[in-house]
Specification:
Helix content: 40-55%
Order of helices and strands: EHEHHHEHEHHEH
CATH class: Alpha Beta
Bound molecules: shikimate-3-phosphate
Number of helices: 8
CATH superfamily: P-loop containing nucleotide triphosphate hydrolases
Number of domains: 1
CATH architecture: 3-Layer(aba) Sandwich
Structural class: alpha/beta
Amino acid sequence: MAIAPTPETSSDDNPPKIDRPVVLVGLMGAGKSCVGRKLAESFGLPFLDSDSAVEEAAGCEVKDIFEVYGEPAFRDCERRVIQRLLQGGPAIIATGGGAFMDPDTRDDVKAHAISLWLRADPEVLHQRTKRSKSRPLLNKGDPLQTLKDLAEQRYPIYAEADIVIDTGNEGLEKTLEKAIDALRQQTKQDTPS
Ligand code: S3P
């Protein structure tokens, strides 16, 4: 006999059971690191950031890797680093905006993780990134146009993520709430009853 949970113990009050990595996908400024850190805190899981892991492996900042070794070298390192992070068990992993565009990384994420795309309009992303100089792709030309071009190229691919969350100018708490709800639905769906 199935016993309905009492309101105090309703399964929806509990954090979803995360049994594999959750990979955050999205353009620069989408909030992958911010939201990722908070999600990790809520679930009591480690937070990992692929850009930081690349910097650690290379011994220099992402913008210097682009400048000195070029973007292909960065992408190569990024692919290997994410492959390693995915093998570490449940964690929240924020990836650099280009990572999910790599077909091998995408296959790996699909096989071993739950992917969550934080979708936002280029104008919003521009507002959020315009004061930082740490992103080599936005340090030249017209950054708003670059974000628009990247959105056009990447959004059809990001749409392959398991979960899509729209983040506008709403606060972090709202995005977090939406992400937790969506993960709850996703993990329910993954667990046969
Ligand atoms: C990139 C995004 C950056 C970083 C690199 C390239 C991209 O990460 O990986 O500058 O191609 O979109 P964030 O998305 O965390 O800014």
